[in-house]
Fold these 2 entries.
Entry 1:
Amino acid sequence: MTEKQLSRIEDAACPTCGSCAGMFTANSMNCLTEAVGMGLPGNGTIPAVMSARIRLAKEAGMQILRLLENNIRPSDIMTDQAFKNALAVDMALGCSTNTVLHLPAMAREANVTIDLDLINEISKATPHLCSLSPAGQHHLEDLNRAGGVTAVMKELSGAGLIETDCLTVTGNTVEENLITVRNLDDTVIRSTDNPYHHEGGLAILFGNLAPEGGVVKQSAVLDEMLRHEGPARVFDSEEDATQAIMGGHIKKGDVIVIRYEGPRGGPGMREMLTPTSAIAGMKLDTHVALLTDGRFSGGTRGAAIGHISPEAMQKGPIAIVEEGDRIAIDIPAKTLTLKVPDSEIEQRFLKWSPPEPKITHGYIARYARSVSSASEGAVVK
């Protein structure tokens, strides 16, 4: 296309204010802020252009003063069970993989522990009720019209999948908040008896390639890619991988590995929207998987597995993957396997040494030295 045509598309791509209208990272965390009890009902889904959003902002300011008067603090709300409720809503909505970073990081500040096994446990028990962009045809305004986050919680509470006695910023419990709530469109918010998938939207994979886990948005993976095995195509940066994809060097069946883009190696885990978009745009998302110790945009779909931990910079096994190694992905079984003998892996590590840090001075260098694994929320220790 011409530059003029591209400019016209760019100018029309985001015609209003607010975040992108899919269940991407910003909307995911806004919905989960409501689900954990720290946002007023409607906070997660009311469109930016509606007067209801302005009213909610005023109500929030007034409610802060009521919370202060009643000595209700964040620590009273963000309890162990509240985070489990948020994870259940996460699975029902099919939220961004980045929630697996943000929720554990939030929980840590509240002295609550979320480990990745817990995420799989809740995902297995919680059906996927909403098929929202990028995995489906519905958008945030549809979810809002159907009743929003509280309507999703109402469906889950009916199946005993959330704890309803948790306190929220309304000053009431979840149960009290849900008394008058109902699902206004069961094509947008399905019942627990008729879900899109019987498991939640996210899955954590473990194996010799990811001893501490890696995350995938399984609700956005096509059936034919739920199980996949292929040769590794190894890149030490996002840019190198993108160049190979755009240059036509990736073939059907390949498993792209992008490493040294984790919390420490990146540093900071850039979101890899460019390579994942290129894979989808070149019609390879039904044939190619992508693994990384970095993270993805919430708009990513397909067999894109991120947050592989330990990361390459911390001597994770992803550091010693070589071009052509066979990698097996089994999302239903929650496994990620480098098909190389343990003895060979040990020999490779004897020859391995970490590369020089990309940034060696200033605050970013300090961050890289002190940041935790993505499996712990990539928090600064």
Note: The radius of gyration is 21 Å.
Entry 2:
Amino acid sequence: MTQVAIGITVNGEDHLLTEDMTMRRLLEFLGLPEKGIAVAVDGAVLPRSTWNTTAVEKGWNVDVLTAVQGG
């Protein structure tokens, strides 16, 4: 069985994934920190509690946002 590449966009940058992965695995794969961030998929926030079980799907537009302090 051949693997099909999954095309997604993360923070405006296109990525081709050659293996199935969860959101948490995607963040690790891209070298992004796990703490101090929020993840949105197609404009909707993805709760951190679902990162281990949410499989990344073809065509997703993922935004990884970092918390910023200020006032």
Note: Residues 39 and 47 are 8 Å apart (CA to CA).
